[in-house]
Every structure is written in C-alpha cells, then in structure tokens.
Specification:
This protein has 337 residues and is α/β, with parallel strands linked by helices. It folds into 2 domains: 143 residues, 3-Layer(aba) Sandwich (Rossmann fold), CATH 3.40.50; 181 residues, Dihydrodipicolinate Reductase, domain 2, CATH 3.30.360.10. It is built from 12 helices and 15 strands. A 7-stranded mixed beta sheet has the order 12-11-7-10-9-8-15, with helices on one face. The chain has a 6-stranded parallel beta sheet with strand order 3-2-1-4-5-6, sandwiched between helices. A two-stranded antiparallel ribbon has the order 13-14. Strand 5, helix 5 and strand 6 form a beta-alpha-beta unit. The relative contact order is 0.16. The model has no long low-confidence stretch (mean pLDDT 96). Nicotinamide-adenine-dinucleotide binds next to helix 1.
C-alpha cells in the first residue's frame, strides 16, 4: 500500500480537522469517501476534500467505495457501533475520544478490533503535542524528582453540539472536554487511577436546567493514583473567554508547567499604552500541530504495520475514570476504581 485511503465518518468540527490533514497535509494519505447523516454536510465535505463519494450511512460506504481505514469524528454515542462495523469489515480505525459512552461498549469494541486484527488509535492528540512530549521526557529524566501532585485545567470556549448536553448520552463535560486531562495526567504520571471524588454544577446554562437536569458546565475533580500521586482537574465549558488547557506537575525536587494562554508569542503595544496579547480561542489552534502529528503517526502505523501506542486500552481507562467521576458527582461520595 503506497497511500492509505480513508473514509471520513462524521464531517463536523473534529472530523474535518483530521480529514483536511489526511487530504491536504500528509503525502501518503487521502480521503476517498465521506459519511455524514446530514446529507448537505456530507456533500459539502466531499466536495472540499475531493472525495470520490459521499454517503449518509456507513454501510452504504462499505458497499460503494474501497478504502483501508476510517476516521471517526461522529458523536460519541455512535462510536461503538461504527468501530465494530469498521473492524468487522477489516478497516483500520482512527476514532475520536471519548472511546464510547459505556464500558460495556468499550469492551465490545476492543473485542471486535482484536478479533479482526485491525489497527486502532484513539484521538488523544496531547500525546503528540511537543510541550506535553517535552514534559514527559523531563519527568522521565527525573528533573523534578518524583511527581507528587498534578493539576490540570481543561476549559472549552463555547458550548459543544446539543447532543453533549444529555449527560446520560455523552457523559458530559468530564468526557467531552476533560477526557484529555484524565488521559494526559495518567500518561505523564505513569499510573492508573485508584480513587476519584468530584463535584459539579450548572452555573452558566440555565436554559438546560429543565430539559437536562443532570447537565453541569463546571467541575472540580480530585484524584489519587495507584502509585500514590495526587491529582486535580478543573473543567468548565462554556468558559467563554477562550480555550484554556494548562497543567502543573509538582515533584519532590521541582515543578513543571505545560501550556500557555497565549495563541501566539506576539505582543502589541498600542498608542493607548495598552499591552495586548491574543489568547487561545480554539483547540483547533492550540493543538493544530498535535493533530497533524497524530494523523501522520496513525498513517505510518498502517503503512509500516506497527501497533499504535495510543490504544483502545487508553480510551477505556479514560472512560472508566469519567464514569466513576460522574458517579461521584451523583452520589456525593468518593468512588474507588
Ligand atoms: N480531540 C479533540 O480535541 C476533539 C475536539 C472536538 C470533538 N472531539 C470529539 O469528536 C467527536 C465529534 O465531535 P464534534 O464536536 O466534531 O461534533 P459535531 O457535531 O461538530 O460533528 C459530528 C458530525 O457527525 C455527524 N453524524 C452524526 N451521527 C452520525 C452517524 N451516525 N454517522 C455519521 N455521521 C454522523 C453529524 O451530522 C455532524 O456533522 C466527539 O466524540 C467529540 O468528543 C474531539
């Protein structure tokens, strides 16, 4: 195989980030088909991406077009059925986070991937971000001693799509925004979660109180890892001021911080004596290079027959802790894993 042919499933916000990378930025990949249940979106995306075909149903794509891999950017609640269908059809799978809505689904997905021996990568792009990679190296070299406390801020600017508001369906803010924090802390600390306690509330979206009584837009999570490290996540969406993703790791011999609020290292000093810096507006800007690296990596795993390191197991671990944190919010009690 010289070029990996992709079928994009879900041509929304995240799906199109990857699809543009595969079509325009990476030499040995292309998008040949687009599936979106919204016909207009499918058609427009196929046109932009010069895909051969567009469909409103994945099964039609499996019959109507030849491809090697799927890139899933459809909503979380359709990940399980789509991944299982793709695996059964022998297609390699890149799937956006969160892996699934339930652990049962996650187990079925893992089984289908294993049985059909297809490659699978979950969309934790922070694992490909230069700053997070540098932090990982520094921790592994022991430069801050042994990590003892990790704090992670994960706040999104605006409300994500409507399906996200139903916490029973989406697992809410902690899944849709903060699963990146849960995954990257676990990766940096090198240990699995042992206990979680979380509190949350709806401060900013009174319009959802009646229709979605479980909806929360702000959360604080405290964590303990199996290796004893303590953790804390602060999440909010819509934060309204921008996309805010920062982390601080305290070690026995020092500390490190990852992430900046500034989108660019440009400072403007205007004639009103104001110093102006531009803040991060979107995950699409802050992690632009990380998405590209993650997409290149997945394509290379297919071309070189390597197992992707950001695996279905990582997706499962993130879902497991999110579900436990939501249980803690509901019961007001700490939850052991
Ligand atoms: N890694 C990241 O940083 C990141 C960022 C944003 C979203 N995401 C994840 O990506 C996924 C999609 O989120 P989004 O914000 O792009 O959503 P979105 O609503 O912008 O896009 C989803 C698209 O999927 C289509 N769709 C719905 N059901 C479908 C189905 N059964 N088959 C095919 N298409 C279908 C919708 O019509 C829509 O065009 C979610 O799982 C989300 O958590 C990840």
């Amino acid at each position: 195989m010289e070029k990996v042919k992709f079928c994009l499933i879900g041509a929304g916000r995240a799906g199109m980030v990857h699809a543009r990378n595969y079509e325009f930025e990476i030499a040995n990949t292309e998008i040949v088909a687009v599936v979106d249940t919204n016909k207009k979106i499918a058609e427009e995306a196929a046109k932009e991406l010069s895909a051969n075909n567009f469909f409103i149903d994945f099964e039609e794509a499996l019959i109507g077009e030849e491809f090697d891999a799927v890139c899933i950017g459809a909503p979380t609640f359709v990940h399980a059925e789509t991944v299982i269908k793709a695996a059964e059809a022998g297609k390699h799978i890149f799937c956006e986070k969160p892996l699934s809505s339930t652990l049962e689904e996650a187990n079925q997905m893992e089984e289908a991937v294993r049985r059909n021996q297809v490659k699978f990568q979950i969309g934790f792009m922070r694992r490909f971000d230069q700053n997070f990679l540098k932090a990982k190296e520094i921790i592994e070299r022991g430069e801050i001693g042994t990590p003892i406390l990790v704090k992670s801020v994960g706040r999104g600017p605006g409300l994500p799509p409507k399906w996200y508001c139903d916490v029973k369906r989406s697992n809410g803010l902690l899944a849709e925004v903060n699963s990146h924090d849960f995954d990257s802390i676990r990766w940096l600390v090198g240990s699995d979660y042992e206990q979680v306690y979380a509190i949350a509330d709806n401060f900013k979206c009174p319009q959802y109180r009646e229709e979605y009584p479980d909806f929360y837009d702000t959360a604080v999570v405290s964590l303990r890892f199996k290796n004893g490290v303590l953790g804390m996540i602060d999440g909010c969406c819509p934060a309204t001021y921008g996309y805010d993703a920062r982390m601080e790791i305290l070690g026995t011999e020092g500390m490190l911080q990852i992430g900046s609020q500034q989108a660019y290292s440009v400072l403007v000093w205007n004639n009103k004596s104001q110093l102006i810096k531009e803040g991060n507006r979107s995950w699409r800007i802050l992690f632009k290079d990380a998405y590209l690296e993650e997409d290149k990596y997945f394509a290379n795993c297919i071309l070189n027959n390597k197992e992707p390191e950001v695996s279905i197991e990582d997706g499962k671990k993130a879902i497991e802790i999110v579900i436990a944190a939501n249980k803690s919010i509901k019961t007001g009690q700490p939850v052991k894993l």
